[in-house]
Amino acid sequence: MSDTAHCNKILELLSEAHPDAAPQLNFSNPFELLIATMLSAQCTDNQVNKCTKQLFIDRPDAHSMAAMTEDELTSYIKPCGLYKTKCKNILATCRILTESYGGGVPETLEELTALPGVGRKTANVVMSNAFGTPAIAVDTHVARVSVRLGLADGKDVLKIEKQLMENIPRESWSIAHHWLIFHGRRVCAARNPRCTECTLSAVCREYNKTDKGDAAGRE
């Protein structure tokens, strides 16, 4: 099987395994997605959604959120963890959005990553899910699963992102991001991956490169 055929088979199996793959953060506009994604660092989507539910009701835009004090914002986001850093970055970002973008959210990678606390992953999430721009956001799940399956190599996040962009058709970048996340959460866990239950074991590089497959099959 050629490399292209192998990648296409992986994508086909991922799509079959996770037909419900979609963003798990709750948002109704680009601003809400930006803030929610900033809060999601080292925090579950479920916890973020709990915190942003009331926050977005009380402070629905960059203008109103920029007017908050750190203590006020902290009262909403503290359960998300790393709240001191997140609070400072969110307030600084909201001020920039208000002053430089009329309260809107920029749509390019360069402009987004220039905002405080916004890295490539957050920027790609916003571009993909808020603006429909094909992008692959590499989080821990995407990095782990893509390397195990053989869609990418190494541990460098930027390198993995570039390899995924090369190996996955551009029109599939955004949905493939969600497939990989869902697979990482549901099947390919960091510890004790459920290899014997995985529908991709036959095409998984990690599973087949040693005697692991035979061992797992005897479990």
Distance between the terminal alpha carbons, to the nearest Å?
Answer: 28 Å
Based on secondary structure, the structural category is: mainly alpha
What's the story with the biggest beta sheet? none
H/E element order: HHHHHHHHHHHHH
Give me the Rg, rounded: 19 Å
Count of alpha/pi helices = 13
Helical content stands at 55-70%
Low-confidence stretches: 213-219
> What percentage of the residues does DSSP assign to strands (E)?
under 5%
Count of individual beta strands: 0
Net shape: elongated
Describe it for me?
The structure is a single chain. This protein is an all-alpha fold. It contains 13 helices and no strands. It has helices at residues 3-17, 30-39, 45-58, 62-66, 70-77, 83-100, 109-113, 120-131, 140-149, 157-167, 173-186, 205-208, 212-217. The longest helix has 18 residues, at 83-100. It starts with a helix and ends with a helix.
Please provide a brief summary of the model.
With 219 residues, the chain is an all-alpha fold. It has 13 helices and no strands.
